[in-house]
Amino acid sequence: MKISRRVMNEDGHTSSIRDKILTITVKKGWKPSTRITFPEEGDQGPNNVPADIVFIVKDKQHPRFRREGINLVHTAKVPLGKALIGTVVTIETLDERVLHIPINDIIKPGYTKVVPTEGMPISADPTKKGDLIIEFDIEFPPSLSPDKKDLASQALLQ
Description:
Shape: elongated
Number of helices: 2
Order of helices and strands: EEEEEEHEEEEEEH
Helix content: 10-25%
Radius of gyration: 27 Å
Number of strands: 12
Oligomer: single chain
Strand content: 35-45%
Low-confidence stretches: none
Strand order of the largest sheet: 5-6-12-9
Structural class: mainly beta
């Protein structure tokens, strides 16, 4: 991070603006609101101590995941037929691995599947991770022909 700050000149009475590079090494699993402090890197002036510069970590929205503490939540879209008979959900992880999660249960509203240790790394111990929680969005067909309605009726209502 490049900052510009006021620095006292050698004479001790005047100051000038100088650029400085501050390096932030972001650690895996840092939580939002984590503070990174650079002591006394702020503006200098006569008769005052330079202030600390503080950066605060903020989560960036991700297209496939939502963070809940140390867990990651993914919403999988599943067609109604596969929600009833079972399916395999394919998810690309943050570290670009591909997980194939078999779902053998009937997926109903509110159903979730937990995949242990596939969530966010824990910053204090990066060898440990939270869980991946899969939520489901069941996609209904926009319409059904009379024949398909009869088949569905025979399969589900008798």
